[in-house]
Amino acid sequence: MYNYIVDKGRERDRLMGIVENQKKYINIEKSDIMKKELIFLGPPACGKGTQTSKLADYLGFPHVDTGSLLRAEIAKETPNGIIAKSFIDKGNLVPVDLVGSIIKDRLSEMDCNEGYILDGYPRSVEQADMLEQINSDINGDIKSDFRAIYFDLNQDILISRIVNRRSCPICGEIYNLKFKPTKEEGICDKCGGHLIQRKDDNEETAKARFETYFHETEPLIDYYKSRGVLRTINAEGSIDEVWERLLEVIND
Ligand SMILES: [Zn+2]
Q1: Rounded to 5 degrees, what are φ and ψ at 76?
Q2: Which terminal Cβ of the chain has fewer Cβ within 10 Å, N or C?
């Protein structure tokens, strides 16, 4: 009986040793993986939001959405949030430096050590320069793998996505008459609410948004292309098809 317990103890120690070794092995592997800095470019309604949230879950990286980040700073009344609010209240844009400072604080947090997914930033070459500076300030000597992933999609398809978009006013679920129809026409699958079309989901507003978008983003595409970090994916097709293409450019 005694020997049995001793043997059990040895067996446990042996197993614990394996676990410890595996832990070490995992740590070594993790530190060998280069930090991934992923930013996303793409027109409104290109499916970028859906794909980036999915990717954040898949990679275990934080999904840093600039709009939500700014709103959260304001809600929490942080020093930066208070200053940002004073600009918004006067109907002015939040200054580039202030947005940069908020982004830098967020990207400096521990959960971004292995990588991050940044959505909605940068929107101009000036901001892209700032992001480059932010990354180099945070990383110091640590090398990182920076990629700008561009969701490329024909404008006619985008407009058709927007004008066919319907949303549930109760639970917020988004549908599309062509690409994601409800089981019963006009009724939310999730909660039974009556779907509505948002006022700005019309062709005229959509076209105006694209003009703003192309004006802002085209210089960024050239900017990242010239640095050799641009990856373009065809954003046409189902969520699963685009996801497969996204994984290819992440893993290449
Ligand atoms: Zn609903």
Answers
A1: -80, -5
A2: N
